[in-house]
Amino acid sequence: MTQQNRIDASGYTYAHEHLHLDLSSFKNNIDCRLDQYDLICEEMKTLVSLGVHNIVEMTNRYMGRNPQFMLDLMRDSGINVIVSTGYYQSAFFPEHVAHTTARQLADEMIAEIEQGIDGTTLKAGVIGEIGSSKGVITPDEEKVFHAAAIAHLETGRPVSTHTTLSTMGFEQLKLLKKHGVDAERVVIGHCDLKDNLDNILRIIEQGAYIQFDTIGKNDYYPDEKRITMLKTLAQRGLLNRVMLSMDITRRSHLRANGGNGFAYLITTFVPMLKEAGLTQTDINLMLRDNPMLFFN
Fold first, then answer.
1. Where does a divalent metal cation 2 bind (predicted)?
2. 289 annotated among ligand-binding-site residues
């Protein structure tokens, strides 16, 4: 497979995931090395059988990205993976970001979109996850957002962000717009980690998309509250700006290791949504139609 930067419109899409990630040295915890191929491949096969055909894989450079792992997964499980290019957030930036220009950072991203990643046939299909710190966008993060904007304007690829604990999403959008990015080409990530409805409404009002992409992470924020916010958005007719995902990042999140596993969103969370009054049309909008429009 060589065409990985477009959505397979016949199935659902998880809009923000990780399939190979290694933040173990940053966090001094082996659990943060997500790399167990056989377990992940089995979970992907299960997802495909449940109608999920696409994973937007948000592990960028310096987060432990592994393009060959993605190519193998696509071959062995049938899942379609859209990979990303960019830089995460200040705490995880490599040293060179501090003395590299936005133009140079953008050129790196553009090369991964147009030429491929690490000498493989795999090309990045999304600019992300471009992140900010809790309650602040640092100067280096601001530079990365500028670089993401340049890369977007030159390639047309959409921008997907990381907010730390649902902070600074509106400010991220303002920054990208300042650098010429149309709000409709931006999705603000992790909007579901606190009571965040006012902020979500401000972001959607500007024309951007938002993600409820930490579903199942009840230690951070309970799914019941996520559903309450989604219900409100449904009542206001705003689900055409919402995408869903789980942001699986640890070995312990995998089903075989005692976690929820990737299928939880379909097998547990979707039935909870229906019980709360959301319709199949609502669910198709968030899991199929919106990602198809945004990522293609």
1. 129, 162, 190
2. no
